[in-house]
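User: Structure tokens for this complex, please. No commentary.
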Amino acid sequence: MAVPVAESANPNDPTRPFNLPAQKTEIAEALTEFHRLSERNAWERAFKELEKVQQAPPSALAPRDDGLWMPTRRLIRQALAELPPAGKQAYRLFHDADAKVLLEAAQGKDEADKLNKIFNDYFITASGDVAADRLGDLYFEQGEMDKAAECWRAVTDFRPETAIPRARLLVKTAIALARAERWGEFEETRRQVRERHAGESVVLGGKQQPAVQRLDELAAQRAKDAHGSPADGPAASESDLALPKGDALRWQFRLFNAQQAQMLSQAGQNWGWGTQFPVREMTPAAAIDDQRVYLNIIGYLMAVDLKTGKLVWRSAKLHELPQKVQQNQYHFPEQYSLALNNGVLWGVTRDVAQIGQHGQNFRLARWDAADGKAGWSSQSVGELQNWNMMGRPLPAGDRVYITAGKQGQGAELHLLAVAADSGKLLWSTHLGTHQADQSQMFYRRTSQPSLALHAGRILVDTHAGALVAVDVRGGAIDWGIIYDSRMPDTNYWYNRPRVLETVGAPQIVGNILYFKGMRSSRLYAIDLAGPKVLWKRPVGESAMLFGVDSDAIYLGGEEVLAIDLKSQKLLWATRLPIATGWIKPLVTKQYVYQFTPRGVFELDKRTGDTARLFRGADLDSLGGQLLITSDSLLTVSNLAVTCYPLQSPTKNGPPAVSQNR
Amino acid sequence: MNIPWKRIASIFLTTLLSALSPAARGGEGGITVSGTGEVLAKPTRVEIDLAAGAAAELTGDAIVKYENSLRRTLDVFKKMELKNLKIEQRSLSFESTSGAAAAANVFAAGDGAPSTAKSQIDITRSLRVVLTETDKLSEQELMETIGRLLDAAKDAGAKIGSGASNALMMRMMGEAAASTPVVTFVVEDAAAAREKAYQAAFNQARARAARLANLAGQQLGRVESVEEGAETAPQDDASVQERMITAIYGVSSKSDEEDSRLTSQKLADIPVRVTLRVRFALAENPTTASQ
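Assistant:
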């Protein structure tokens, strides 16, 4: 039985770097009390405690014993479903009549609300299974496949005595799973239908057919669509790079000359106290398509032609940057970002006239990738003007998702869905509260969230100690997890040791989410179907997740690590020279690559041994990011963008590059 | 760690005697002089101290990391196929550390916020890369070879210059010690050079004494005593800080065997300097006596 842990349910726990929008402590305690009284068969008192929980906001989160935080409505349903028979009987005695009335009244515009009420609060009553089935149908019609599957699956899992044919429920569940592209669970459900209900028929769309027929059709269609590029396959396991034989480069685009580089490397020294600003070791935000590489260097945007290395367009003259950086201290270089989608460049940036100025909002803006023509900016959209944008935008279809805080509320984090064409704010969701005001952390990297889109949910790793799954349709929080993370210190201390901090985005393979927060020493695997924490294991805090294939998980940083996917054992570790945490390694079919101040290391994925050390032509730099096209390898450092020809075009196009920043 | 009591006592006594007595002192019926001999010796060996290993929260991880690191470090030198190169595997240490992030949070420990930094097990093998017969290489060849060795070590992920003396330095001086020398030049067999230095020192003492005796109208007699002064030749002429540590704390990272060698952190001939205090008896000069 999942029992909330009252001690950790404090919504404002000062020991956590980040707190989720949780229920009040007394609600979590009431849920705990319900479990305690249930174990003593004190049903009347137990249900009174449960009523307190039912009257609380249903979407606020409360902790489960496995570390996941769920909306209270789901915890109530689960708590009821897991009651012993005597408890269920007692609950029905109290609530069967109420549920029946509610079910009969569930018509018209209130139908969904009333069915939801039964599903959440009265699921184990006589009307609960019918309500769940009808609610599943409603969600299916609305295209909300995850929710539909959840309703039908709840009946098969927790109401085995239901009169609704099990085969029909399983088939409907499997179809919803297929539509949600949750193929692993689809196959498991299909297997159940095949093994236990092979001879049965179901009515689908008014037509009677063998239970397994429709599922086989879906599986066949999927196999056909996925031929050559399995949807559930490794995210980063493509063809290998054929690095140039010598160190010959195609072109190099210098960002700074020696004097400017010196100025940047000394940023902070004129403030005294041994101050070191993150800008000293930053590499610019970069994005690439098949024609250009795009850079966002502290608000200076530019595009460089991939064939010639010539500047195509720029938003301002870069040479003035080092001087501007020395004038102020609130640079937040990690907050500048870029994303590319269908010829549109999305970025989070500040006007260059405001570099380093305290309290100035970062803006979300769009540009035409070909010519740099500016589109709308959140500065010019009324309802977005007060938002301080953070993290890397996630453009998807007609929307763009971005995390943000409101001006003057640097500790609060929200997720916004914005219309891509107009900048209209579609919804915003409060994700939680930082313990440390991010706008005050000028001397070290702030937590800039990473976003991933999967099966109708945005997964937001705050990189501050929590990950949140949000429904893309309305922005409701589906679940969250608070993970171990070091508390950042907003003060600056004289001669404080430098700490290497790297950032890797969550990786999703199949239906499994892997993530590791920036200041966390734990790597997590979560089954998104549950959701359920599959495992977590210690890793170095300075490590960053950058790839997962069918065998292993790869982490980069001062050590490149391979961790066995099945056993979670460390397979190998290779220590590499490193001078900046602003790196982006990559994984191909046989190798792992990391760009270091001593060149690009090509490591054998099986052993971690250095297959080749490609020195390249940027050895004065701190190392940095790797980008690839079908015929080129690009390194993006703190000093230059350098393009090297690959010996022969890679097969199947460019390897998938992790979206880490 | 060896504490060179004999040497410390010798330094102390010699310094005391030097302060109390003039350089040349005529005793009752004798004369005492000091002589210094210096011979330059060419380094025959280059040593680079390395450490292979890693830290991890899980000891199992630390072992995997350590084994990988050691194997790769050894492999990279093996692949160089240098004739006079060998790798000495020295001490193996197990330490519990709190990691860099925890160190950074030490400053804020007083604010009541709990530290979430996890302790780690650090397994480290000290290694010494030894290149012999370096006196047969030209300076250019030697520089290139050392460069290759350092590059190989860095590329293999080994920590360079991680000897005990450097660890002491880091503890004492923090980041200011980041420029610690990493290559040591060694004269392996210093005995022959020392012999020559002794001879030169004695010859100088005898010449001085003879000159003084002559001035005094006396004749130099037999040697009555010989006392060896502090060896002024630097054991390690660049490591001032290390000698400070030895002088202040009485600790040294060098073994007895290493004490018998001559080392320098600069590529140059290493001076072997010997100082002797010799007491000669004085005899009447027959010529002067007859007068």
